[in-house]
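Thread: Newbie trying to understand structure tokens

Hi all, I'm a second-year student working on a class project, and my supervisor (Dr. K.) asked me to get a predicted structure for one chain before our next meeting. I've only ever worked with sequences, so writing a 3D structure as a token string is new to me. If someone could post the tokens and maybe explain what I'm looking at, I'd be very grateful. Here's the chain:
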Amino acid sequence: MKTTCSTVSQLNACGKRPRIGLALGSGGARGWAHVGAILELLKHGIIPEIAAGTSAGSVVAAAYASGRLFDLVSFANEVNGKRSKFAAVFSDLSLDSVSFLSGDAVNRILYGFIPDIKIESMAVKYAAVAADLVSGESIVMKRGDILKAVRASVSIPGLFSPVKRGERLLVDGGIVDPLPVAAARAMGADVVIAVSIGNYSSSWTPSGTNMLGPAALAAGGSWLLSKNTLLSGLAAAGGASLAKTAGIIEILARSWEVASTAILRQSINASRPDILIEPKGISMIDTLDFHKSALGIKLGADAAARVLQSDKIALELKQALAENK
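---
Reply by user tm_fold:
Sure, no problem. This is what the structure looks like when written as tokens:
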């Protein structure tokens, strides 16, 4: 009887090395956890050949697939604890009528750890997931300019300008496919390792800057600015006048977060990963808390370590990799 080679144990019995794919989910600044998870996988000899990402996941997947993960780690070390490092992103106001921010500052940040190359030229297969703003379709980008693909995947509707790709107008993929397991599997992964970071804080409250008005902002002083990390960063960079814009940004980001998280569980149930990594305590990092890079990386690494020590498929995978080097 012919042996079927599909599960990890069956692939091992067939003498075939499993082809590993990553599916990195959306979640804003919680995406730092993706970095920690990948570093932990690599430490255990688990080297993904496929990387699919949505929104924040598309950024980390691109850095990994292009061989620039450690440039991203260096950037994480540089910005840790420094809220003002991202102030330029949120003060980069758009002159068009379709978004609040232009995204030019985001592009400048991405240039630091994602090369200006074509997706198809990379040794690791890569895909970024975005949403077609007109049709509502999930668009999986596997060819073309990697920076443009990432820029489309992270464009939170209303916050950043949509990206035009052919006849399509693309925005953040988190609203259609927050965890791209199906994309990784479609690219040929035998085993899909997914990192889900969609557990946002349920205790969040808006800073209220715009709702309270200029007089309240002036009277509120340091308390109001210290209440929200983004407001603090903007204030450090350009004073309270810039901080006044943060309330709108904050609400848009939170709205996107709630919408994408609402379909996350449906996504996991529809396209179940073989191995699921869900960092504990990730809700301590809000969508715009990019300065909490060290915490995010640690939470991701700890979660991956726990799964690798206890998950049945993960244990089988480590054994199969050791036996089929």
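A couple of things are worth pointing out once you decode it. The mean pLDDT is 79. The radius of gyration is 20 Å. Feel free to ask follow-ups in this thread.
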